[in-house]
Amino acid sequence: MLTVTVAALVLGLGIGLGLGLSGFLPDRRIATPVAPLAVSVAPEGSEEAATIALFRNARDSVVSIATSAARRGLFGMVTAEVPLGAGSGFIWDGNGHVVTNAHVIRGATAAVVTLADGRSFDARLVGRDERHDLAVLRIRGSDLPPPLPLAPPEPPEVGARVLAIGNPFGLDWTLTTGIVSALDREIPGRGGTSIRGVIQTDAAINPGNSGGPLLDSAGRIIGVNTAIYSPSGGSAGIGFAVPVAAVQRVVPQLIRTGRYSPPSLGLVFDPRLNALANRQGLAGVVVLDVPSGSAAAQAGIEPAEILRDGRIRTGDVIVAVEGARVETLDDLLAALEAREIGQTVRVTLWDGARERDVALPLVAEG
Predict the structure, then answer these.
(1) 10 Å Cβ neighbour count for 317?
(2) Quick one: pLDDT at residue 78?
(3) CATH, domain 263-364, list 2.30.42.10, 1.20.1250.20, 3.40.630.30, 2.30.40.10
(4) Who's near 94: CB < 8 A, 6+ residues apart?
(5) Same fold yes or no, 161-257 and 263-364
(6) Fewest CB atoms within 10 A around its CB: which of 32, 77, 105, 164?
(7) CB under 8 Å to 323, separation ≥6 — which residues?
(8) What amino acid positions are annotated as catalytic residues?
(9) Angstrom distances, CA of residue 245 to CA of 154, 221, 274, 302, 363
(10) Is 58-138 assigned to CATH 2.40.10.10?
(11) Is a pLDDT exceeding 50 seen at residue 276?
């Protein structure tokens, strides 16, 4: 015990003296040369170099969008503009059209588009389509960035590399990368319908990325980022984008007319009625109304009838288009959207006893 105590005392004194004098005695330690930090540079032609070049080329064509809503006081007078939200978008053409998501500008009375060079412009709403969650704004200015190129309408391959550029959480012009995780996904849309054919990706997509482009490895737009799947609202490795085929169908119509009118049979459907019928085991689409004088009326299509006791007599039920079976209203809308207005299609009906085919021309949805 004594030996240990003395040794500890001596050791303590030595440490204390060393600590106490170290500030005054010269440091006689030999300095070890430190090698300079090696900075790796992406070799030309590598995937990293390609990603850097792609971002540099595409960055200027991606925009930040800030929205606000008018606050009204007495007599409906605007008293203030309240910030509403933020999102992303991209230059569509040389006329100042900007594509974004419909939900980015939903409820807004004003929107400001900011370019990568710092210039900001008040934007005018040209049109929107809630069914595909797409909207078009327009800005006016000189020397606007060029539009981003569009990929072919054919879906990309699962596993293909993708890049997303946007403004998540207000962090302007952020690049994330990933792959196409799956195709032909379906996510909830507005008005009781779904957005179909959606691209799933693991590229990090967060709030604020909405409306920004999803690019392939050639820098072409393959989709418009629209949603994330996450209980927390942040990225969880599952993001979705409206495919470019839908964008190419919808956006030109929004620019021309301010609204999207998909091909239609000229019939009236009710999503709630059809959802109820489907839950009760009916496969097909119930026709709610047949406008008088229409081609459908001339073909003798019978609509559903609500009886006095509240029950529904289904009338003619659409079960196929051009031989392809349809079980839900979403199935029918998807089958029609792939065709052109003016085209005649073969529609199969079931009246509760037998099936029959009728030929109906496609018209613009009213």
Answers:
(1) 22
(2) 59
(3) 2.30.42.10
(4) 144, 146, 147
(5) no
(6) 32
(7) 346, 348
(8) 103, 133, 210
(9) 7, 10, 27, 34, 20
(10) yes
(11) yes
Three state DSSP letters for the chain: CHHHHHHHHHHHHHHHHHHHHCCCCCCCCCCCCCCCCCCCCCCCCCHHHHHHHHHHHHHHHEEEEEEEEEEECHHHCEEEEEEEEEEEEEECCCCCEEEECHHHHCCCCEEEEECCCCCEEEEEEEEEECCCCEEEEECCCCCCCCCCCECCCCCCCCCCEEEEEECHHHCCCEEEEEEEEEEEEEEECCCCCEEEEEEEECCCCCCCCCCCEEEECCCCEEEEEEEECCCCCCCCCCEEEEEHHHHHHHHHHHHHHCCCCCEECCCECCHHHHHHHHHCCCCCEECCECCCCCHHHHCCCCCCEECCCCCEECCCEEEEECCEECCCHHHHHHHHHCCCCCCEEEEEEECCCCEEEEEEECEECC
Q: Residue 25: what pLDDT?
A: 34
Mean pLDDT lowest among 12-16, 115-119, 123-127, 288-292: 12-16
- Position 364 scores a pLDDT of 86
The token pair at 287 is 């026709």
pTM over 0.90: no
Buried b (16+ CB within 10 A) or exposed e, 278-299: beeebebbbbbebeeebbbeeb
CATH superfamily of the 161-257 domain: Trypsin-like serine proteases (2.40.10.10)
Q: Where are the domains of the chain?
A: 58-138, 161-257, 263-364
Asked whether the beta carbons of 63 and 114 are under 8 A apart, the reply is yes
What per-residue confidence (pLDDT) applies to 330? 82
Averaged pLDDT of the chain: 82
Distance separating alpha carbons of residues 268 and 287, to the nearest angstrom: 6
Q: How confident is the model at residue 197 (pLDDT cuts 50, 70, 90)?
A: confident
